[in-house]
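Researcher: Please translate sequence to structure tokens.
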Amino acid sequence: MQTRYVRFAALGDSTTYGIGDPVPGGPGTAWRGWARLLADAMGTAYDVSFCNLAVSGATARCVRERQLDEALAHRPDLASLVVGINDTMRSTWDPARLHEDLMTTAGALHDGGALLLTARFHDHARVFGVPSVLGRPLMARIEVVNEVYDLVHATYGGLRVDLAACPEVLDRTFWSVDRLHPSELGHRLFARRFAELLGGEGLAFEPPSAAPAGGLDPSWRRNVAWMLTEGAPWMGRRARDLGPWAVRAAWAEAH
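Model: Translation complete:
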């Protein structure tokens, strides 16, 4: 029986948008993702109003400038804020601006009455399989992002999932073909972790199943097509953007 009306706004980048968890949709493929999985599971026990404002490629500044106002207009009881990895992969990396954007966004959501859902990020270089000479500088940036989320949590509270503490993160099956986005299993893991935390806050419902369901079966043809049309071009743009930084980082590491 539905006993409460819950408003849930999801803000962030491609992970929250749902890339890596394809489902049938319209004439082709749509994306579901952890936030939708969580909202659907919550909807078995509550009346849920869910809006996913996440955009693929979004940075913390994009979330603040293009997603925050619409999220606040939704008057959310829950608001997820999972963004920052795209910031680390750009030549425009600016820790001070990242701090300002995340704290401003988190503060506005908290002041609007939302319980924040955030994350601490794992070592992406270990999942990518990049050489340690490049992995360590990347992880140093990710740790800066994590430090800001630590401050967000200390200041505004809420619930957070520490991905580095999830052993499944290093399991290849929990990642899509590009190793950047979670697979359906990865999205389900993230949703289940948040469901468990929400249960501790009195929002009790059956967590999303850990087993695949409702999505498209794995297909090497679809994976290849996605890598050719989306994955490879993205990697090319990042390589051109971060090439000089990567060379400098490797040189400094070697000397």
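Researcher: Any highlights?
Model: The longest helix spans residues 220-254.
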